[in-house]
């Protein structure tokens, strides 16, 4: 158990301090502390003391070795502390450190799809709070990298299509947006929607966002035709689109999608 491992590692402090094994000992302790703080079955949840201790040890490692692993570990420690305590300063540190780790990946190219996705979520969270366009742009870049790197993990790819599609849809509403974002968003969300489980909040968000994109887009931009929607969504996806978009906007997939009111040209 993580608690036993942490107690054992803490007991080694005097023995390990100042030795060649100190960096590895601190890294193991950070990993154990973060596992306990993020364990779903953790009794009482993460403690502030554990989170602070993990951040302190990770900071020591970065001060002694400015390598990719150290930046990533500091970023991860502050990411977890942000998720638990909600201090925006921790989120800022996590974004800076994980971005630096990604910049160094050419030296040791292990930065994974999960790492890209985690950084993207931090950037999206900050964009939601501060509305800085650059954060959204960076998040989209990270989500694209994550989707490119998820290989044969279809479950991860499904989630990433949903997140990238909604992020692109958000950016498509900016004054400087191009039709490419709207088109890419519509296609990603249309691929994701039929595979999302009924009742999942992501299903509602995907259907609502896709409906809004199709209503706003021109036929030449996103293939706004019944044939397109049926081919890409399938009957199940089409039913989800109707169900979740019609309640929020005055539009559904009509017989003639170019004339949502049903009027003839």
Structure notes:
- The protein has helices at 2-10, 13-16, 22-38, 48-64, 68-85, 88-103, 113-130, 133-148, 154-171, 179-192, 201-216, 219-222, 226-245.
- It is an all-alpha fold and 265 residues long.
- It folds into two domains: 1-111, no CATH class; 112-265.
- The longest helix is centred in the last third of the chain and has 20 residues, at 226-245.
- Mean pLDDT is 82; it is low at 218-226 and 246-265.
Layout of strands and helices, then pairs:
Blueprint: H1 2-10, H2 13-16, H3 22-38, H4 48-64, H5 68-85, H6 88-103, H7 113-130, H8 133-148, H9 154-171, H10 179-192, H11 201-216, H12 219-222, H13 226-245
Helix pairs in contact: 1-3, 3-4, 3-5, 4-5, 5-6, 6-7, 7-8, 8-9, 9-10, 9-11, 10-11, 11-13
- Main beta sheet strand tally, sense and closure: none
Q: Quickly count the helices.
A: 13
Average pLDDT number? 82
Measured by DSSP, the beta-strand proportion falls in under 5%
Low confidence ranges: 218-226, 246-265
Radius of gyration: 23 Å
Q: State the end-to-end distance.
A: 69 Å
Number of strands: 0
* Net shape: elongated
Classify the helix fraction into a percent range: over 70%
Any idea how many domains? Answer: 2
Structural class: mainly alpha
The assembly state of the depicted protein chains is: single chain
Can you write the helix and strand succession as a string? HHHHHHHHHHHHH
């Amino acid at each position: 158990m993580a608690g036993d491992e942490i107690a054992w590692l803490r007991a080694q402090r005097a023995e390990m301090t100042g030795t060649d094994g100190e960096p590895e000992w601190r890294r193991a302790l950070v990993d154990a502390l973060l596992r306990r703080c993020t364990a779903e079955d953790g009794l009482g949840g993460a403690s502030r003391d554990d989170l602070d201790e993990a951040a302190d040890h990770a900071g020591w490692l970065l001060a002694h070795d400015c390598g990719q692993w150290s930046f990533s570990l500091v970023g991860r420690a502050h990411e977890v502390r942000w998720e638990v305590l909600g201090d925006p300063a921790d989120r800022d540190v996590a974004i800076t450190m994980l971005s630096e780790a990604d910049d160094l990946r050419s030296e040791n190219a292990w930065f994974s799809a999960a790492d890209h996705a985690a950084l993207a979520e931090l950037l999206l969270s900050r964009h939601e709070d501060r509305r800085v366009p650059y954060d959204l742009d960076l998040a989209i870049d990270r989500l694209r990298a994550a989707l490119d790197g998820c290989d044969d993990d279809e479950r991860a790819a499904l989630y990433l299509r949903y997140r990238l599609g909604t992020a692109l849809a958000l950016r498509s509403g900016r004054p400087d947006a191009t039709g490419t974002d709207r088109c890419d968003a519509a296609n990603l969300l249309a691929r994701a929607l039929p595979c999302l489980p009924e009742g999942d909040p992501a299903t509602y968000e995907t259907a609502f966002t896709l409906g809004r994109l199709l209503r706003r887009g021109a036929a030449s931009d996103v293939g706004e035709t019944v044939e397109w929607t049926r081919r890409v969504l399938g009957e199940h996806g089409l039913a989800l689109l109707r169900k979740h978009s019609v309640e929020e906007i005055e539009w559904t997939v009509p017989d003639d999608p170019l004339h949502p009111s049903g009027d003839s040209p």
